[in-house]
Design brief:
Elements: E1 2-6, H1 17-24, E2 31-40, E3 52-54, H2 56-65, E4 70-79, E5 113-118, E6 122-126, H3 130-139, E7 144-146
Amino acid sequence: MSLILEGTGSVPYFTNVRATLEALGLHASAYDWYISDIETNYAPPGLTNEDQWISGEAFERLITEHEVQFIWGVLSAFPRGVRFVVEHPPAADGNADFWSGKELVPQLAGAQFEIVSWDSSATILIGLPSEAEERFQTAYPAARHLPSTAR
């Protein structure tokens, strides 16, 4: 399933990945991450605007030690140890699929789920395990299902 959280005062800013993962009941260190189409409020050590693989441990440190706002971006969660050459990186900016009304799946094959930062105004969660989805909706009752919220 896919969720979107937007237009709510229940978060201090979009997208705080640490708070998002906490609400999901998940830990960044449990996965490895492919991060693409990134724009942040600043670039702490270990994070650039370039598409990149990052270990779960490094990503956990990054979001714990720094108050990073992901303005645009796609964070694809993979089983630890997975790495491959990504020929077509996932995109947030300009990606009309989010609003197409089709059922969404992570943009990279093999991703367990995807966190999308949409123009610092929404967080889109794609392919969540049902328990994580339920936890997020409990934490943020304003979260709605996609594609039923297609614009």
